[in-house]
Amino acid sequence: MKAILALEDGRVFTGRAFGAEGESFGEVVFNTSLSGYQEILTDPSYSGQIVVMTYPHIGNYGTNPDDEESARPHVRGFVAREFSTIPSNWRSRESLEQYLKRHGIVSISEVDTRALVLHIRSRGAMRGVISSLNGDAARLVEKARAGPSMLGWDLASAVTCSRPYRHPATPCAAEFNVVAYDFGIKRNILDSLVRAGCCLTVVPATTSAEDVFALKPDGVFLSNGPGDPEPLECATNNIRKLLGRIPVFGICLGHQLMGLALGGKTFKLKFGHRGGNQPVKNLINGRVEITAQNHGFAVDPDSLNANEIEFTHTNLNDQTLEGMSHKGLPAFSVQYHPEASPGPHDSHYLFDEFKKLMLEFRKSPCPSVPTSRKS
Fold it and tell me: What pLDDT is stored for residue 370 in this prediction?
């Protein structure tokens, strides 16, 4: 069955329908990972987006319940040069096509993904529509143009949990009690925090700072998530109330929200950072980390007070800000995903840094005491 991917600038790509039949709108972005497609499909940070895989052969090891980052896929559509219909892996429980059909994910294969990715790199991420129902390309381009822009789109509210819950669900005797804000949190992040000695209470994105303090945590974690951070004014205000009163660690969207809470601004990247091969330099020790990333927005370093904020990490591809810490308050954040392990262990130290910060604050809970991230 024929399918069409139509972009808002009028460019049209034809291919073969795969997965669920139908029509779907989203921001068209690309991911450079060689594997991990199921983790990508189920990452809530991809809510509202159609994901193009640059690696030409996707689906060869099938799908299984253990590789899911959340309860269901969140992508709006999926694009690849070739989707494998025959999985070959002892862990596979279902083919990728069966998985996409079961979850209603409209997909397209046999697309010239090299040309598509070069187009996005040149023109920027843009709105698009995948359809296996409508062959009118001009009409699909109109639908793409009529869809919402990622700028100003609050998607975190749609993927956050509806009520607080404990992770793990069983009684926990960990060293630290941590509250994790769910802006679209991944299961592997929760598991990484547990392995670092944290007992977690996961709370919805709109949870007030007062409700967080009532849980008597040793620290607060700000998760990843989808969409534009600037519309999340409630979250930004709550983070501002937490800063200085408790250790705070943020990643991805959590990093951007911390930047806003510290008085900074964010901006939309041309085509974003998505993949498992992003080089990031640690400005504290000079080491280069190979990182996994998935974001379309970044914190503007020029908007932050350099007397208060230390820039700790930078992206070696485009020099965007990848990490920061407050010079006087127990708070730090990174733009990338330390739990994803593409290095494979380059960034695991960040969870240990969070533990150190909580331990120091427990001994000396004074907002004026600098963190130890310079050591």
Answer: 36
